[in-house]
């Protein structure tokens, strides 16, 4: 199994994969904001939510659904800012994962990653990291 990467490239590939995996897990987990509502613990992120209030029309009252899940639709995400954050953070995670998987393939396939491809991948990775970090931190 020949590699087109140097030792530094192999380390970069594995660290890239670990960072991309951590970003994707963070994106899918609903624990960005924690709090309480109607005396129940609630949490939500851009993509998922846990323990959320729902209007029960038969009893004409608000009840808490104590489970985790995705929003029913893209429009169900609470605000336009959260929708934008979802798209940008998801795009960043996708770019990070794309570069990480390409780099890992470069560990196994010779002549896959040249100096130019490595620089382009680094630029894409920077862009993906910027999208994930800035939006995730509310900047």
TrEMBL record:
Give the membrane topology: Multi-pass membrane protein
Q: Which residues cross the membrane?
A: 87-109
Q: Where in the cell is it found?
A: Membrane
Q: Which residues form the signal peptide?
A: 1-21
Provide GO CC annotations from the record: membrane
Query: Which keywords label this protein?
Result: Membrane, Signal, Transmembrane, Transmembrane helix
InterPro entries listed in its UniProt record: LHFPL (IPR019372)
**What is the name listed in the Swiss-Prot or TrEMBL entry for this protein?**
LHPL6 protein
Which source organism does the UniProt entry give?
Peucedramus taeniatus
The gene for this chain is Lhfpl6
């Amino acid at each position: 199994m020949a590699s087109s990467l140097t030792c530094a490239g192999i380390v970069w590939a594995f660290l890239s994969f670990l960072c991309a995996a951590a970003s994707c897990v963070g994106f899918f987990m609903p624990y960005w904001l924690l709090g309480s509502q109607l005396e129940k613990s609630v949490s939500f992120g851009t993509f998922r939510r846990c323990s959320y209030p729902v209007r029960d029309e038969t009893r004409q009252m608000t009840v808490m659904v104590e489970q985790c899940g995705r929003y029913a639709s893209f429009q169900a995400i609470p605000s336009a800012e959260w929708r934008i954050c979802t798209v940008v953070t998801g795009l960043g995670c996708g770019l990070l994962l794309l570069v990480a998987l390409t780099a890992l393939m470069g560990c196994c396939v010779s002549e896959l990653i040249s100096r130019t491809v490595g620089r382009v991948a680094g630029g894409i990775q920077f862009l993906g990291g910027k999208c994930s970090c800035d939006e995730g931190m509310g900047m």
